[in-house]
Specification:
Layout (H helix, E strand, L loop, with lengths): L5 E5 L3 H13 L4 E5 L3 H9 L5 E2 L3 H5 L4 E4 L6 H8 L8 E4 L5 H10 L4 E2 L2 E3 L20 E4 L7 H13 L3 E4 L2 H28 L5 H6 L5 H8 L3 H10 L1 H23 L3 H20 L15
Parallel strand pairs: 1-2, 1-4, 2-3, 4-5, 5-6, 8-9
Antiparallel strand pairs: 7-8
Helix pairs in contact: 4-5, 7-9, 7-11
The structure holds NADP nicotinamide-adenine-dinucleotide phosphate.
The site of NADP nicotinamide-adenine-dinucleotide phosphate (NAP) has 29 residues, from helix 1, helix 4, strand 7 and helix 10.
């Protein structure tokens, strides 16, 4: 039994276009409508045949939908929700894919009073953006975290959960504030560190940019992949998840200071103990199928 018959996707970038492709593959009878604020993205969505009906306004996309997913940057969620309020069927369920949840849930609830809202965050993505970057298998085996409010209709939560499972994801349900704390340490802080280290390396005076790029395989290269992530998306994530990110950053700074002290005092045991613990975490991630077990992330070396 299909969870929804008519799905509207607002924002047809990496995540929105991946959802469209995955729905086409796993639920081909579902009618898909779509809208994007960028006319170039709309034109590309037609060329890629991402949806059955591409509309010129957000309202037209949701008019007959039973499920609406907002796939725009976190900072645009409230405005997009407000722009569909007048055209949304009263019994439609609204969700989103934002990387931070408490602020988005509040913005959606304010813009759409009386509508069933089930916020979601698929913990899957790449450093690329736009409709060409999407692919149908993006969510396969990945977690999608739903953060419904305490008084959310369990039937609506169940339908959204089934939708994500149908497109390959595994579903967890969590309180929005807890989601924001967990993702602050697993995703947001690592992005902040990557942005910092790549910025620091590019600002150095005694090491040339040429050298940084030439010798990048020594660890720096893997940070540059994360630091290439979409600037709009990540600006919005840090502004929206300010509290949790600052809390995790404080913890991180303290741990970094402890490491600095261990290096200064030649405390090899402290360094060795930490590096042993962190290696075990990498192994657990691989054991749980959340990354490629091959060395160097499976990169091909001639
Ligand atoms: P993306 O590839 O940049 O796509 C976002 C699309 O939304 C763009 O085409 C953008 O158009 C459009 N848009 C912006 N404002 C809009 C509005 N007011 N109305 C309609 N469309 C609008 O970004 P993405 O990576 O798919 O991210 C979308 C959401 O998914 C974000 O909330 C992000 O936090 C979340 N997410 C991302 C990842 C990831 O790894 N990328 C993973 C999980 C969740 P313009 O080109 O004009 O800006």
């Amino acid at each position: 039994m299909l969870p929804f018959a008519r799905v509207a996707i607002l924002g047809l970038g990496l995540i929105g276009s991946s959802i469209a492709r995955a729905v086409r593959q796993s639920m081909p009878t579902v009618h898909l409508s779509g809208y994007d604020a960028d006319p170039a993205v709309r034109a590309r969505a037609v060329e890629l045949d991402l949806v059955d009906e591409l509309t010129d306004t957000p309202g037209a996309a949701v008019m007959d939908a039973d499920f609406v997913i907002l796939c725009v940057p976190v900072g645009a969620m409230g405005a997009v929700a407000a722009s569909i309020a007048a055209d949304l069927p009263a019994d439609a369920i609204v969700s989103d894919v934002g990387s931070s949840k408490a602020g988005v849930a509040k913005a959606l609830a304010e813009a759409l009073p009386g509508i069933a809202i089930v916020p979601a965050h698929p913990v899957a993505g790449t450093e690329n953006s736009g409709p060409d970057a999407g692919f149908a298998s993006l969510f396969n085996g990945r977690w999608c975290i739903l953060t419904p409010a305490g008084d959310a209709d369990p039937a609506a939560v169940m339908r959204v959960s089934t939708f994500w499972e149908r497109i390959g994801a595994r579903v967890d349900i969590m309180d929005a504030a807890h989601h924001d704390l967990v993702l602050a340490v697993t995703s947001h802080l690592p992005h902040l560190i990557a942005y910092t280290i790549v910025g620091t390396a590019s600002d150095l005076e005694e090491v040339t940019q040429h050298e940084v790029i030439k010798y990048s395989a020594g660890g720096f290269r893997d940070f540059t992949r994360i630091a290439a992530s979409d600037p709009t998306m990540w600006r919005d994530v840090f502004l929206a998840n300010k509290g949790a990110v600052l809390e995790m950053l404080q913890r991180f700074s303290e741990d970094l200071t402890a490491l600095q002290r261990a290096i200064r005092w030649g405390d090899g045991d402290a360094l060795f103990d930490l590096f042993t613990r962190t290696r075990a975490i990498r192994r657990s991630i691989i054991e749980q199928g959340q990354d490629d077990a091959r060395p160097d992330f499976g990169r091909v070396h001639d």
